[in-house]
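User: Sequence in, structure out. Go.
Assistant: Echoing your sequence, followed by the structure tokens.
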Amino acid sequence: MSLFQPSHLLRFLESIGHKAPSKRLSQNFLIDGNILKKIIAAAHLTSQDVVLEIGPGPGALTEALLATGATVIAIEKDPLFAQALTRLQTANHSLHVFESDILAIPLEKVLKTHGASHKKVKVISNLPYHLTSAIFGKILPLGELIETVIVMVQKEVADRIVASAGSKNYSSFSVFTQFYSHPKLLFQVSPHCFYPKPKVTSAVVECKLHPASENVDPSVFFAFIKEIFSARRKMLTTSLKKKCSAEKIQKILHSLGYDHRVRPEMLSLESLLILFQQIQSSACT
């Protein structure tokens, strides 16, 4: 059944007793086969790949993933959809379905159990938009198990993910994603490609995970990032005065090539890491 076709999707939803898409679970179902093809093409899947799909819903993307020969680990919170996905478990398709909240499931254990021993997992999903930040917070630190993340998100969020220092969309979330990955915007997706039609434009982004810096404690670093970006309109010499004297902050900033009046959104990830490390070290004691 071609679930990306609206008539087929509506018949399927009726057949499993799914009365209406849940706004609470961000259920907007993809009904454009061309977008599915573009996602699959971007992933470069082979029969040797293992894919983690988060929130597969009716399973249109799941079917397309399985058609490549890849193994799919599907995590679906909605019990009706989770049960219905088992119809795709055949002798020719390797599918593992978990009825669970992605934020609650022991993901590392699942990936180690069902992932390929010789290859990292690829995450390919149309994410529940209201959980995008939380899901990224869970999957991006798993670079030892995950190779690539290709996901559909709100265009506004995609802009923040790929934003460069100094741009209007650069935020603490940009710093977080770039700390763990090399993100890239692949393409935009119109609201007309979904049922029901959302009020926002979507986009597909690719994040190629890379090893995080070994010289910093991520939890301490991101607490620092959250603090300075919460006062993003303040000069760093002002927002950091409790941690270090203005004179020393100025010296560090000048060594990085920045004016002493610079604000946090102007600093690249590399500069933020150096600033953090020097504040943590004897440079500010």
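User: And one key feature?
Assistant: Residues 59 and 85 are 7 Å apart (CA to CA).
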